[in-house]
Design goal:
about 260 residues, 3-stranded antiparallel β-sheet, alpha+beta, 7-stranded mixed β-sheet, 4 helices
Length: about 260
């Protein structure tokens, strides 16, 4: 399998996923994998969640999950048909896990793949993608999947009576494919991401110091107020005592 022969190319980049529904941002490592020989060219975008300790060397990139690829069967001059083809993968089902789903990761991955193959294989044919009604399951999921392929300019042909579940996604050639990037993505180099993390940590520390200062000032104000109250309480009791003593002396003198 070409997937297992592919090796990383260059440094990984960091993709910041945001969402209109989810307030939190999530950092994802993006790594290009390539393999090429005389007959094949394999290009893949594989994604992994950023390790909690920030050590990118510990990231694990799956071949089938959170992965997007095009495998190319090259034209061969010694073949009479001399036809080259491109196949989308790794499977006909886009697989994005958990919190990474529905945040533009799949669109990013396939858009990058399309940009690569269009530079070298724009006249190649594109193998059709099978659309199954069994997975994903349900009309809303079918509609989401169909819209996903339409964003890349695939034409959909259905074989089921509802014209939505089963069928195929087709493109006449690589040249007709289009890219589609989500507006909720930010792309950073590792250095930029580390700098941003340092700045966020610095801002967090500044906020903590400001909060600690505010609490200390509040405690000081409370202490000052408490001291003033104690002072006036002492004054009150001193006045009471003096008044009592004065009245006592007056009473004794009268006797």
């Amino acid at each position: 399998m070409l997937e297992k022969l592919a090796t990383p190319v260059g440094e990984p980049i960091v993709l910041i996923l945001a969402s209109e529904k989810l307030k939190n941002e999530q950092a994802v490592l993006i790594q290009i994998f390539r393999y090429e020989d005389d007959a094949n060219d394999y290009f893949a975008i594989r994604c992994a969640e950023m390790p909690e300790d920030g050590d990118v060397t510990s990231a694990r990139f799956s071949i089938t999950t959170n992965a997007f690829q095009f495998s190319v069967t090259k034209k061969q001059n010694n073949q009479s048909s001399n036809v080259g083809s491109v196949k989308l993968g790794p499977t006909s089902t886009v697989s994005v896990n958990g919190d990474l789903a529905n945040r533009g990761l799949g669109s990013f991955g396939y858009s990058r793949c399309i940009e690569y193959i269009q530079k070298k294989y724009s006249d190649y044919s594109v193998a059709s993608v099978k659309l199954s009604s069994s997975f994903p399951n349900g009309q809303s999921e079918w509609e989401r999947r169909n819209h996903f392929y339409q964003n890349f300019n695939f034409e959909l042909e259905f074989s089921d009576e509802n014209n939505i579940g089963s069928g195929r996604a087709k493109a006449a050639s690589v040249s007709v494919l289009t890219t589609h990037y989500s507006k909720n993505l930010r792309e950073l180099t590792l250095v930029e991401f580390q700098q941003e993390q340092c700045e966020q940590q610095r801002q967090k520390q500044l906020a903590q110091k400001a909060d600690e200062k505010a609490r200390a000032e509040k405690a000081l104000q409370f202490q000052k107020k408490s001291n003033r109250m104690r002072f006036w309480i002492w004054i009150f009791w001193i006045v009471v005592l003096i008044t009592f003593l004065q009245r006592l002396m007056t009473f004794i003198s009268a006797d």
